[in-house]
Design goal:
about 150 residues, alpha+beta, Aminopeptidase, 4 helices, about 30% strand
Length: about 150
């Protein structure tokens, strides 16, 4: 990371193509193996995350190339305003080099300046992201349960 030039900035729908390239590179591979072959569904999902009034998307560029992206929304909660991260990823070839931790630190600085008091996110306990978040100071919410119902 020493000689690499990083640029941290807010992103929006205008950057859909570079977000899409990074997102599919990461999440269509191990350990996620998500099937994002339906391009229309993917475009709608990315718009859901980047194109709403309360959307908040950050990108980390390495020598001009998008290397990390965090997509989510601002949520006004009784304990204060939160940044709810729906998706966060680092380019697969760059994982394990400290870039994700650097990116999270930049996100934290940026949202603190906006008066945001907490980050909320979800991940699976059997993937490397779980240890990554724990290592970066995130706490598992005991008693918090996620539900889903297939229709």
């Amino acid at each position: 990371m020493e000689n690499t030039m990083y640029e941290f900035r807010k992103l929006g729908t205008e950057q859909k193509d570079i977000i899409k390239e990074l997102f599919t590179d990461v999440f269509m591979a191990e350990p996620w193996n998500d099937d994002w072959s339906d391009n229309k569904q993917l475009d709608m999902y990315l718009f859901d995350l980047t194109g709403q009034n309360n959307s908040l998307t950050y990108g980390l560029f390495e020598n001009g190339r998008l290397t990390g992206v965090a997509m989510g929304h601002i949520k006004h909660w009784y304990t204060g305003t939160e940044y709810y991260i729906e998706e966060l990823c680092i380019r697969r070839t760059e994982q394990g080099k400290g870039i994700g931790t650097y990116f999270l630190n930049e996100i934290e600085k940026a949202i603190k300046e906006q008066g945001i008091v907490q980050i909320f996110l979800q991940t699976e306990s059997n993937v490397p992201a779980y240890s990554f978040y724990r290592k970066n100071g995130f706490c598992e919410l005991k008693g918090h349960v996620s539900f889903a119902k297939k229709l």
